[in-house]
């Protein structure tokens, strides 16, 4: 077998002498890089760009597989942070008992008004009913007023943190789907 093979540059057509030990070289005429392919006694040239594309596909797939693992761990960690925030600082609620007190106050006030309208007389019992109804309404409304302040503070702190975590989870889920598509495309 001769020490070299004569080929033409695929880019410029210049004559090239390829020795057996060369696997990659630049054309002396145009400067384009080529990869030497040897198979079944045939020697051919392929631009480095084609070889790099194949490497790029492998690198993209591997990088996406690594990114999938990393993103899944990050998403799991964000879910853990979200659960911790929800359990350590739950959203303020008001007991249903206070809603019942307000409802009772409204019913008694309505009944008192009905009695007043029907009898056109305001007696001690009517005044008592009205007083009780206002007392129930006041007692029932206090926790709701306090809850409003607590809810605003919760929203400024924990609610804002939860929103940021949920936005971060959504972005990472989007990235995860992108990388899964790359892996599926190159499978």
Along the chain, the helix and strand elements come as: EEEEEHHH
User: Counting H and I runs of at least 4 residues, what is the number of helices?
Assistant: 3
Number of strands: 5
In spatial order, strands of the major sheet run: 3-4-5
Which residues sit in consecutive blocks of at least 5 with pLDDT less than 50?
none
The percent range for helix content is 55-70%
- Give the overall shape, derived from the CA principal axes: rod-shaped
**Proportion in β-strands:** 5-15%
Spatial gap, N to C terminus? 40 Å
Rounded radius of gyration (Å): 39 Å
Largest sheet: 3 strands, antiparallel
Give the overall average pLDDT: 76
Number of domains: 2
Structural class: alpha+beta
């Amino acid at each position: 077998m001769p020490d070299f093979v004569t080929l033409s540059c695929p880019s410029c057509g210049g004559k090239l002498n390829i020795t057996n030990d060369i696997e990659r070289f630049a054309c002396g005429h145009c400067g384009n890089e080529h990869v030497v392919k040897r198979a079944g006694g045939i020697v051919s040239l392929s631009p480095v760009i084609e070889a790099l594309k194949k490497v790029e596909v492998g690198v993209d797939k591997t990088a996406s597989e690594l990114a999938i693992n990393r993103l899944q761990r990050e998403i799991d960690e964000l879910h853990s942070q979200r659960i911790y925030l929800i359990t350590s600082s739950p959203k303020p609620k008001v007991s249903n008992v206070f809603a019942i007190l307000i409802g009772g106050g409204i019913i008694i006030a309505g009944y008192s008004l009905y009695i007043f309208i029907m009898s056109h007389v305001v007696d001690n019992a009517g005044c008592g009913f009205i007083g009780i109804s206002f007392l129930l309404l006041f007692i029932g409304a206090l926790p709701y007023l306090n809850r409003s302040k607590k809810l605003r503070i919760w929203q400024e702190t924990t609610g804002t943190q939860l929103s940021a975590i949920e936005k971060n989870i959504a972005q990472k889920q989007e990235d995860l789907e992108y990388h899964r598509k790359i892996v599926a495309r190159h499978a």
